[in-house]
Fold:
Amino acid sequence: MKINVIGVPLNLGCDRLGVEKAPNKIRELGLMKTIRGYGHRAFDLGNLYVPPVLEKDKYSKHARMKYLDAIVEVNNNLAELVYDTLKGGAFPIVLGGDHALGLGSASGVGKSYDDFGIIWLDAHGDINTSETSPSGNIHGMALGALMGKGSDELVNIYAPGNKVDPRNVFLVGTRSLDDGEVELIAKENISIYPMTVIREKGVAFVVEDIKHKLKERKIRNIHFSIDVDSLDPALAPGTGTKVPDGLTRDEFYGFIDPILDTNLIKSLDLVEYNPDLDEDDKTAQMVLDIIDHITARL
Structure:
């Protein structure tokens, strides 16, 4: 398989330094060698340019969204690169950076396929709007904007309007939701599998339920967006938004393996690893292990 690696050293969506170092850190640990070890034709497309913005100017474009213009620019560029990658017959691996980049990666996928869905593996919902967000951090609004919820500046990235039907979104591993997100999930009947459900019913139940809905809704292409904070902090301490009681290693791979086996995964985000917060490269090695595990099965 042809694989394009796209680095996105974005920290503006989470408004915290360190996460922008992640793409190069994973490269230093042998990213491309790992991918090519399975016979893939892998190309490192380098890092997208992220415009510098002074902290004092973070609200200069919007009173309730930080660093808006720069994030929109990065995501427009990322969407085009992901779209070009897919049209060229390659599989894009987008290495973050914070989860605001999901706006661009999923928008590029949405232009490529009409029948696509999103699996968003995350401790958080990321479906706030500028009105409901308690922080103003756009990484917590990305999935909501992809569904057409929130400010026009985010909803209309790369193309006007929503990029995915809320019925084709699957939130997995969630365990920290804001009030506005809870209301939106109920209103749109979004498929959500919080850690409470995973622990009560098991990973196999979640997988089978998602596979049933994918078939029922005729979804033939999936954008898979993985936030490292979906994992328990004992496995991935190097992230800025740790939430206790996350996925164990067995639960994580027990979920992604049968999802990969559907052969519907067409693109991947791996986000929110922060080298400055890591412990002896534990999270870095976990990120590399995830990429190893996934590319072995592509």
Notes: The domain at 2-295 is CATH 3.40.800.10 (Arginase; Chain A).
